[in-house]
């Protein structure tokens, strides 16, 4: 690790590279800006819908609203807010497109902070949702968390995320080089800190979430399919048949969660790994594709959760016959409630 660190510390970029970007680089950055802007639009629209349909009725104490507002709404809003921060950091690349280069300073530092905070926030939010879903479906949790517990969890998560972002700035505040700065095409944790701090303060949490996601959601799918096979052995009447189709559909949806998350983070992780372990950066098109995939996180999460958890947006009573994932309802999978 020390050898990698010393090699990576040699790779540093000037604090002002205005006018150095080619047309191809500026065009590639523009694609990132467009994807980030589209993600931000999706996130803001869904936040507005949830606020209108769930939050406002709850605050006004309308009848039935307490049943509609659940712990999963709190976790999901946290995820959307993190996605919004990540999208804003991508949109900020528009300045580097206009200037055809990067200038370190307050704007650059802000982009680096938002990129790190949004990335870690998304990872931790997805991690909490995965653990909660696994616990409810497998029966490890006897009942869903209360709103107070969910809010406490989210506040603790955000406090931890802010603390993680502040650690690097605090530790390296007196050093000669800025902690957040030019990393080639945008701003993030710059050399010589990007190896150890980049893994410890950001990518380590992304990889941890990806690994836990795979284990938990595959475990959920196997349990659902196992329950489905046991019920088929008991009889194949119409009710059981419909229930088993629902379980199969939910099992398929569970596999989508880690797959979608991998689509967003794997390209970026590969590029970072190459940067961490080699003397030269990978070609720009590789970094650009990875960043476009990363910037699509907001779109992917909005579409995934909207289609697989419709009870987040509409009353569960209106979704009769649709296989529901745990939001505020049954904590277990049993023979009567899939």
TrEMBL record:
A GO CC annotation recorded here is: plasma membrane
GO biological process assignments:
adenylate cyclase-activating G protein-coupled receptor signaling pathway
Q: Which Gene3D superfamilies match?
A: Rhodopsin 7-helix transmembrane proteins
Name the predominant localization.
membrane
Q: Which residues form the G-protein coupled receptors family 1 profile domain?
A: 50-305
Q: Where is the signal peptide?
A: none
Entry's transmembrane regions: 29-52, 72-98, 118-137, 149-171, 205-225, 255-277, 289-307
Keywords from the UniProt entry? Membrane, Transmembrane, Transmembrane helix
Give its localization: Membrane
Q: Which Gene Ontology molecular-function terms are recorded?
A: G protein-coupled receptor activity
Topology term for the membrane: Multi-pass membrane protein
Q: Does the keyword Transmembrane helix apply?
A: yes
Q: What is this protein called?
A: G-protein coupled receptors family 1 profile domain-containing protein
